[in-house]
Amino acid sequence: MEVSYYPGCSLHGMAVEYDQSVRAVCRTLNIALCELPDWSCCGASSAHFFDDELAVRLPARNMAIAEREGRELLVPCSACFQRLKHADKELKEDAARWIDGPYEGKAAIYHVNEFFDRPELIEIIKQNVKKPLRGLAGVAYYGCLSQRPPKITDAEDAENPTPMDNLMRAIGMDVRPWSYKTDCCGASLTLSRTGVVRKLSGNLLEAAQEAGAECLVTDCPMCQSNLDTRQAEIEAERGKQYNLPIFYLTELMALAFGEGKSAGWWKKHFVDPAPLLRGKGLL
Amino acid sequence: MLNDPATIDAPAIWPDSAFLTAVEARSGEKVSRCYQCRKCTNGCPVSFAMDLMPNQVMRMVQFGLEEEVLRSKTIWICASCQTCTTRCPNDIDIAHLMDSLRQLSRASGIAAGEEKVVKFHEAFLDSVRRHGRLFEFGMVGRYKMATLDLFSNIKIAWEMLKRGKLKFLPGKIKGKREVRQMFDKK
Q: Which of A23, A118, A281, B56 is least enclosed by beta carbons within 10 angstroms?
């Protein structure tokens, strides 16, 4: 199976372990990732703040490339996913306004959780599990933009999504129920209003701990970064210890496939996941 | 007499529909449909940091309180999490409306209620305009120079550098000029 791949700026920078683990998972599953040639920034959280047209033009360039490539498009970053979906819908309505050439929407856009949570892939994923992550208790944290707004993301249940829960179960995890699956982490306010991010991300850590989770599992680079890199500050502010590793879903899938042991990506984390994984006999 | 205007201790507001009309035209969002159910405010994760609640913004737009809305912190604190948009029973894309109000605020010349939020997005877009992709290290540098907020987050940045999560050089793409033209097209 061949798919187009849009890593986005984060996966080439602060979320490099997400990129590495997506590639590792796809290798195991025999999915060839064809990085979109000469892709550019989607405009993310910023373009729509200042300019509605720019917020379509930036992702539309990438969708025009994806259209030429003609394959399904895998987009691991939630912000990129949402912006590309938005552009896709605008292009289907009036392609000539945004790009040269026709646009049929040949490249169906998938985010990581819904891409792997397809009946045909879930079966292959289960077959490839060499070491189920038994006894590892975690919560699925989706954040905002892979789900909302559903008129753009086409999410099946934006208030209570389940694809990541299904995938965590498929690799043997103990998935804890909680009510914060799609609560905001504070996202791009991280530099400009850091206190807001500490409060929102702190609430998530608190709720995860209460749910009996030993880790949070996410598929959004902004969420992972806020919860992981700011966890020490949050602990200091609240006078509490959370010590909750924040995993990308694909890191744990690769681990279950027997690919994660020597992977360098554990060292990219601020909250060191090695003690937890070693304690479970997984590393 | 509960409803006697003489007993209500608040300034009179004379509704002016010009602002409502302008906002609806720019955003395409039917703000006039809002009937104050407050789902937006009750689901908003950042309402604690706002000076106007989202439902108040809706009402104030209906009433034509232009300056109060455009100078508010609220329009910049909104994190675009899309919860209000998802839940609005009147199908008003409130998060998109916030974008439109930000744009109107910038065009009006009123000082932004949250200057640092503006500087962040300016630094982000400047980086994309220059390189075609976001260059995180350069963006953070520019943001710090613009806000003179030089010392916060230094430790996190250092830890990210050590882990290879911040690159010193921007990526290069062939479509750089094409991207720049998107910014300069007006």
A: A281
